[in-house]
């Protein structure tokens, strides 16, 4: 490809809209352009890179026996009503009416549609297993789209769905997909972790996320330094071992704490550590109040809490209700005398002589102990912290930021029951199909690759993703001999590799800068040494440069490519 | 691919929803399934065929120097308001609001989005020409979607847009795309005609449609049997040569014609031919009334009329207005005494002693002549008929039905002016970019291929589109030797061709029927003659069968493929 004929509008300046490196570089390297909030166009260079990711995904999925389909973007409301997600999905589901006033949505995911397709075609156990996937444009009306392709509203996703006759086979498929995903992200040259994950609105019984490690990641992942336990912090279990009390219970005292509402204020005022404080937070679970107790330095994990309470809605109680229940201003709630169910985090089991609110404005209790009130249930309802230990092996934990590029779910019968997707087993008995689903954000994966592969000068594409493998560049474009050699080399190299030939009549500095910016793995420069029939080969990744005789060029490139 | 592992739900019965062959066969051959009105899922077999069409399009576009991009599906209203199409596009444009109550639409076409992209990147004449295309899912909320992929609401389209510095270059690009399109449809093995076409809501200065000839086509095309003139009937010009009058003008008479409103009724009642009658139709052009006169056997072409009147809206006047203007019931309007502008079709120039309404309920005039009233303008405002002659060479005309698979437009500056897409010319002067646009319905092309390539037993895929080239089939699947040979052949043939291996434990009849139905070009059957180391090769297209020694199979297949 000749640069002069290629639509590659590179930018010298960093666009103000971009906050993270991948976004910045994808704009600067002419890969994408914003149409409107969270909606991007792919330019030729960006689309070619995107297709490289897609093809890796396609190859690995096909190799595992999955089959590609293409499902519609526009989906009828009826299917979503049948699964119950029409109401539950929230505002990310873009709903609209057609000209006949019938309701539809733009597909944010395709469990309903694929289950509808499969239930109509599958009759018997002989028609199973099926593993179908698509690579397709989806829409989620994110409230705050940001970071370019990392969190956009319109995005390209590979979503796959498996259909098995029983749990054993479904799990086999699940773990096969787990391996396929590892292969895909390895081929994308990503440094990633597979972590246990929450199932969210998709639902199902268990799930893993594939997390690319990066400072800008929006997810926090926790992993053990000793064993291979790793989880999304939303999911990570906390195991609280019993420890023998360090002090004897003292007798409770009410203390005047005027205007001290927060843990910080109480800590300072009473001169105690946050570990000595118990926070009392009142929630409405399906509109019924419940109090949750956690230590002052811990945070409640509402996903765990909602799962524990098995409720449809969970919100913090508004101030009016808190005041009504505690007979005090907000900030002074405590378990003593509180007449609603009380859930205590497991860590409370080890606490003695702690501080709580007194259910009386401007008063707290000190030296509270577990005998002083009634706990309905102890449970793990908080986020894990660096002071906790690995729930598997008690090893030390590490925390990192991650970008979720893949997510796999064992769905079980959630959708097959809702939409009545059944088959007849060998005994002629009707059974629900067991499902799994498997997603990869294609655009986000591309962004994550750039997030992990760049330097201050630009992108450093892994060979597997690079839109071109070679950037060919002549310095003295006024010299006829140089141009002829460049053309000849371009022709020769193009029969083996995808070559990008910078034939522009521009200053060398501009060409070198663009070459670094767009990050093609090898740069071949026709410069001074052309007289000696030599060209310069620069490896973008290492910065290494080599002077190589033209006659030996092909062989040398092959060798270098093997090291990339 | 093994049939047993492939999601190919073929149907024995003809689905009731399908009215035309391609739709019927795509359903029966497990290529597509309907999700809801005008919205389809592509199953693996259908998707593979679709991708073959896409790749032909991509190869030919790339070869011509066009570059692939991918634009968003969801488009902000602002751009459509700027082009004026937000109001004008009608109900086919699916409009909706996002969570922040901002208006968007699902892109039915991308002139606005691409012009917005290009105007932001192009500064100078050195940045042009650009020829960008995409293959992407579009949505048009058709009032009556039908015929499967022929007229669906969600569909896949190749849409391309060119940007040139002046008319000469823009036309060069236009004719280059014209040739590209001919190559594409030729490679798809389609019998097609290129016809002059109307520009419709896209706008622009001239346009061609690529029409696949088929009885089920929704367009009528007219072409000359003598020269190469061909046009969509909406567009076809009518040239009316002057002929000397066959009779002398007689004097006008008012005739009582009780309850005779229509041409048929008058023809019968007065015992005259429709050629002797002039219909007077009253329209509202931008709400102003105008009468249009055409011969009784002719039909008004409202597209021509609207272009002539240069009006934004054109509707037939409602009965109330007609009564008011003619002082008579509907059905008795005539030009005499009618006090509004009168447009007469050119064919009236040759009429003498004709019949018109009398603007009086239950009365007509006979022996009317052109002197009897005032005509504002003669013009070509009707559809061409088989009695007309070629507007270029006066040759005889032929009419056929066609499926529009491609449409190219010279847009000129319609969108670049509306969206201010300019460049600086060599003299530093700001100029509007000259645009063209080029569409291909990918799914519709696939359907058209099947419409032209099938017989009573099923599809007959052209080699270029067939998802597999060879259908391998063993009859006696209980025989271990047969199975081993089949597996071995499958392996050998798969290294040269895409082979579909029907390894199902089914009766031969079912396998043969499915092979015919899904239309793979060659069927290789391991039958009785396997003992003699021979297999049967059947050519789907001709029905010809050959017994070929296994050792000579590869060579023979290569030869046969060359004839397909």
Automatic annotation (TrEMBL), chains A, B:
It comes from the Bacteria. Transmembrane segments: none annotated. Coiled coil: none annotated. One of its GO terms (biological process) is prolyl-tRNA aminoacylation. InterPro entries: aa-tRNA-synt_IIb, aa-tRNA-synth_II, aa-tRNA-synth_II/BPL/LPL, Anticodon-bd, Anticodon-bd_dom_sf, Pro-tRNA-ligase_IIa, Pro-tRNA-synth_IIa_bac-type, Pro-tRNA-Synthase_IIa_type1. It is found in: Cytoplasm. It catalyses: tRNA(Pro) + L-proline + ATP = L-prolyl-tRNA(Pro) + AMP + diphosphate. Residues 38-462 form the Aminoacyl-transfer RNA synthetases class-II family profile domain. Its EC number is 6.1.1.15. GO terms for cellular component: cytosol. It is an enzyme of class 6 (ligase). Keywords: Aminoacyl-tRNA synthetase, ATP-binding, Cytoplasm, Ligase, Nucleotide-binding, Protein biosynthesis. One of its GO terms (molecular function) is ATP binding. Consists of three domains: the N-terminal catalytic domain, the editing domain and the C-terminal anticodon-binding domain. Belongs to the class-II aminoacyl-tRNA synthetase family. ProS type 1 subfamily. Homodimer. Catalyzes the attachment of proline to tRNA(Pro) in a two-step reaction: proline is first activated by ATP to form Pro-AMP and then transferred to the acceptor end of tRNA(Pro). As ProRS can inadvertently accommodate and process non-cognate amino acids such as alanine and cysteine, to avoid such errors it has two additional distinct editing activities against alanine. One activity is designated as 'pretransfer' editing and involves the tRNA(Pro)-independent hydrolysis of activated Ala-AMP. This is Proline--tRNA ligase. It comes from Desulfofervidus auxilii. The lineage of its organism: Bacteria, Pseudomonadati, Thermodesulfobacteriota, Candidatus Desulfofervidia, Candidatus Desulfofervidales. The gene is proS.
């Amino acid at each position: 490809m000749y640069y002069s004929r290629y639509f590659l509008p590179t930018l010298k300046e960093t666009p103000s809209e971009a906050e993270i490196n991948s976004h910045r570089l994808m704009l600067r390297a002419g890969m994408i352009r914003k149409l409107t909030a969270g909606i991007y166009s792919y330019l030729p260079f960006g689309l070619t890179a995107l297709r490289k990711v897609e093809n890796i995904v396609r190859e690995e999925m096909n190799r595992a026996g999955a089959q590609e389909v293409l499902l519609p973007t526009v989906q009828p409301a009826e299917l979503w009503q049948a699964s119950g997600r029409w109401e539950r999905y929230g505002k990310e589901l873009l709903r609209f009416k057609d000209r006949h006033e019938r309701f539809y949505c733009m597909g944010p995911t395709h469990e309903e549609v694929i289950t509808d397709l499969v239930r109509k075609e599958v009759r018997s156990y002989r028609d199973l297993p099926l593993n179908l996937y698509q690579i397709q444009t989806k829409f989620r009306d994110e409230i705050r789209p940001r970071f370019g392709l990392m969190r956009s509203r319109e995005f390209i996703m590979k979503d796959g769905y498996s259909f098995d006759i029983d749990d054993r086979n479904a799990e086999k498929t699940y773990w096969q997909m787990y391996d396929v995903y590892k292969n895909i992200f390895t081929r994308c040259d990503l440094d990633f972790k597979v972590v246990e994950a929450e199932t969210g609105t998709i639902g199902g019984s268990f799930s893993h996320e594939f997390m690319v490690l990066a400072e800008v990641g929006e997810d926090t992942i926790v992993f053990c330094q000793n064993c291979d336990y790793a989880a999304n912090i939303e999911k990570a279990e906390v195991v609280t071992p019993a420890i023998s009390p360090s002090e004897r219970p003292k007798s409770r005292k009410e203390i005047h704490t005027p205007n001290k509402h927060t843990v910080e204020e109480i800590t300072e005022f009473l001169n105690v550590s946050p570990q000595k404080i118990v926070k009392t937070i009142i929630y409405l679970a399906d509109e019924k109040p419940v109090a949750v107790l956690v230590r002052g330095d811990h945070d409640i994990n509402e996903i765990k809490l909602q799962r524990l309470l098995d409720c449809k809605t969970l919100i913090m109680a508004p101030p009016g209700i808190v005041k009504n229940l505690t007979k005090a201003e907000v900030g002074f709630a405590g378990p003593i005398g509180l007449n609603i169910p009380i859930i205590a985090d497991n860590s409370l089991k080890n606490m003695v002589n702690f501080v709580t609110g007194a259910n009386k404005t401007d008063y707290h209790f000190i030296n509270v102990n577990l005998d002083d009130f009634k706990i309905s249930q102890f449970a793990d309802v908080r986020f894990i912290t660096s002071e906790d230990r690995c729930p598997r092996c008690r090893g030390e934990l590490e925390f990192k930021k991650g970008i979720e590029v893949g997510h796999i779910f064992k769905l079980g019968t959630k959708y097959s029951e809702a939409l009545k997707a059944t088959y007849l087993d060998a005994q002629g008995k009707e059974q629900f199909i067991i499902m799994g689903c498997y997603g990869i954000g294609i655009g986000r994966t591309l962004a994550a690759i750039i997030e992990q592969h760049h330097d201050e000068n630009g992108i450093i594409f892994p060979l597997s993703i690079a839109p071109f493998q070679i950037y060919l560049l002549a310095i003295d474009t006024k010299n006829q001999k140089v141009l002829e050699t460049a053309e000849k080399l371009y022709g020769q190299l193009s029969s083996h590799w995808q070559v990008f030939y910078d034939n522009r009549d521009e200053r060398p500095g501009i060409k070198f800068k663009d070459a670094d910016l767009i990050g093609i793995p090898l740069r071949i420069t026709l410069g001074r040494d052309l007289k000696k029939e030599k060209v310069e080969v620069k490896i973008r990744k290492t910065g290494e440069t080599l002077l190589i005789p033209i006659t030996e060029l092909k062989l040398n490139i092959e060798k270098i490519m093997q090291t990339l």
